[in-house]
Specification:
The protein is an alpha/beta fold and 248 residues long. The chain is built from 6 helices and 11 strands. The radius of gyration is 17 Å and the shape is globular. The mean pLDDT is 95.
Length: 248
């Protein structure tokens, strides 16, 4: 069956691991560090590049923001023969132990009811592959990063769904108690894609994990600068690839 969005992509076009990033511009930012890299597919928000990292074939694909476009990318990558999938992205932290610039690895995600219900009951867990997660986390620790693990939340909304002000007065407003509810249940962070990856990868038996750069702590509004944020993603990509090359 031919892909509709990742056009003409097959197993020969994918490496031992495929990194998933939201921002299409981050594909070039990261793959430019590789020994070789070549554009495989470019369509809408989806850009797929494959190349070599320390002698191993690896890939990177952009998914766009949110669950809908991420579902498209993951389904078509799995159908095309992806071997391992790692989301490399950002998140907002809800815990004062986490600082902007730290790395966070979620072993499981709370998820909104909605799109994924088409695949499985809302009670089905969204969980990372434990072996893949452990290997990447160990590599991050050995590389000197401040590392955290725990449960996160994937939302389908950036503003009200993450208790953010949107500045529009004549309509629904953020629930001020929403973040406190999840903090009391030890949810460390919010983002918009990992639960889609974890759930679909579990259903279709592909090892998957995430590696998230904390770009803001929501409790004190401490942000990483755009320049530092991009540099952190480059560093995080290197450690993820090093970890995955070891366990191919």
């Amino acid at each position: 069956m031919e892909n509709i969005h990742l056009k003409k992509v097959g197993a020969a076009d994918l490496g031992e691991v495929t990194l998933l990033v939201g921002d299409p511009a981050r594909v070039e930012l990261i793959s430019s560090q590789w020994d070789t890299h070549q554009l495989v597919s470019e369509n809408r928000e989806f850009i797929l590049v494959t190349g070599t990292w320390k002698g191993t074939t690896v890939s990177i694909c952009s998914t766009g923001i949110g669950v809908g476009s991420t579902e498209i990318a993951i389904i078509e990558l799995i159908r095309s023969g992806a071997k391992k999938l790692v989301r490399l992205g950002g998140c907002g932290a809800w815990n004062d132990r986490l600082s902007a610039g730290d790395l966070l690895f979620n072993h499981a995600m709370v998820r909104d009811p909605g799109m994924l219900h088409q695949y499985v009951s809302d009670t089905y867990p969204a969980a990372a592959d434990p072996d893949l997660l452990a290997q990447i986390k160990l590599q991050a620790e050995n590389s000197g990063f401040r590392v955290h693990t725990g449960i996160g939340m994937t939302t389908q909304s950036y503003y009200l769904g993450q208790s953010r002000e949107h500045g529009i007065s004549n309509g629904p407003q953020p629930n001020k108690n929403w973040m406190d509810y999840w903090k009391e249940r030890h949810v460390l962070n919010a983002e918009m894609e990992s639960a889609v990856l974890f759930t679909l990868a579990s259903l279709y038996q592909i090892p998957a994990a995430n590696c998230l750069v904390v770009h803001v702590n929501r409790l004190n509004e401490q942000w990483v600068s755009d320049q530092d944020y991009q540099a952190m993603h480059q560093q995080a990509a290197k450690l993820v690839l090093d970890a995955c090359v070891k366990i191919k």
